[in-house]
Specification:
Length: 163
């Protein structure tokens, strides 16, 4: 049984079935686990919130003396929070953020120790100021980069990277 279709100037003829659209190619991205909404996200937000005031340590020490070190305690508290709840982050996108923030704290602590050691030498005081400046900018960069990725609910591409 065949049916004929006629076309009039008002209605165009139907397209032949042979001209089908090509199948879509599969995306080439690596699948990422979905961002959980439970306590993991809250812990991560709190950790970033504790790391943010630690950025102000340098300014606070400049204006308030050693009382500015109290702000750096917030970074250590954020690190403790991440370490304490590490099992909650395994297998989620936040696992990369835990690694990122842990390394940020360790690299910054090592940089500040280098600055304090060079500051103890008379000839190294100008160099120590430069070390403190570079380490402070580095810390700010890493915290903001991590938080920006966290706010987009994405995992960091390479949490083991230095930059």
């Amino acid at each position: 049984m065949t049916t004929e279709t006629t076309s009039t100037p008002e209605t165009p003829a139907p397209a032949p079935e042979e001209a089908q659209a090509a199948p879509e190619a599969a995306p080439s991205t690596v699948p990422v686990p979905p961002a959980p909404v439970g306590p993991s996200r809250g812990y991560m937000m709190l950790a970033y919130g504790l790391f943010l005031p630690a950025m102000m340590t340098g300014l606070a020490m400049m204006f308030a003396g050693h009382a500015g070190l109290l702000l750096d305690v917030t970074g250590a508290a954020g690190l403790f929070l991440l370490w304490r709840n590490k099992a909650d982050f395994i297998g989620t996108i936040y696992e990369s953020h835990v690694t990122w923030l842990t390394r940020t704290f360790i690299y910054t602590l090592a940089g500040f120790m280098l600055g304090f050691i060079t500051f103890s030498f008379q000839a190294g005081q100008n160099f120590a100021g430069l070390v403190f400046l570079v380490v402070g900018i580095y810390y700010i960069y890493r915290v903001f980069k991590g938080f920006r990725t966290f706010a987009r609910a994405r995992a960091l591409r390479d949490p083991l990277a230095f930059v």
